[in-house]
Amino acid sequence: MADGHAKHHDYHLVNPSPWPLVGSIAAFIMAVGAIVWMKTAAAGSPALLGMRGPWTFAAGMGLVLLTMFMWWRDVIHEAHAGDHTPVVRLHLRYGMIMFIASEIMFFVAWFWAYFDASLFPAAVEAMPVTSLDGVVTQGKNLIGMVERNTLFGGVWPPKATADNVTFKQTFDPWGLPLVNTLILLLSGTTVTWAHHALLENNRKGLIWGLLLTVILGATFTICQAYEYGHAGFTFANHLYGSTFFMATGFHGAHVLIGTIFLLVCLIRAMKGHFSPKQHFGFEAAAWYWHFVDVVWLFLFICIYVIGAGKVAH
Predict the structure, then answer these.
(1) Mean pLDDT rounded to a whole number for the chain
(2) Distance (Å, rounded) from C-alpha 33 to C-alpha 289?
């Protein structure tokens, strides 16, 4: 009877946790805040149903971040308590693999949008009918057929717009984009160095490798922010700008997330959390970082190089 509750298997049954419920409520608040924010911005009203979109969204985002921190903290505690048996670690790996697979499909959508526009620049598609002054017809749901070449000249990359602001020219791929590519490739080597150092129980090499990777990730983000500030096109009112910024912008968000992921691993490494036999937290971060590297290579080749056209110097 004494060992009726003893565990005779390699699986870990987690203790009751408030974070799934708190996370669901936080995500709902954040979604409502985003909807109210967009609705009030479109209507020019500061509030809707007594709610201010930005504040509601910020409150939901804050709760989401708190949930993430506390939930992952609990997972780390479970690892230190010995609950991450070989079977549990295997399932954690499966989970990370499936997560990265879902991220791949996420980027497939943005590549699809870009290639649809670039391969068929003169396609005819249904769009809302607009009046002569450019205002979308309201309340009538009228749909008309519009050729893309009336929007950006039927060529890719598009021709410069009359205002020379909405679209002027593409980026020179052999300038800052190439520098960013080299930065990310170098960061892939430093995180691999850190991984091999950990496997050899070289704590100093692990810390230095992670530190350099975090610095390179932050440098990439700074360079991309500078690049965006000097873009020869805008996000709004132009198909090239929207597809470019959505694809590269979401990649930039993943770089920022990956940098934070690796920064947490660096802090944990300095506290001596990882061992050569048990370090899934670091391994997951390294997988994620290599995924970010590979996506950037596709972005650089497809969007920056192939899609550059003739760049004016």
Answers:
(1) 84
(2) 31
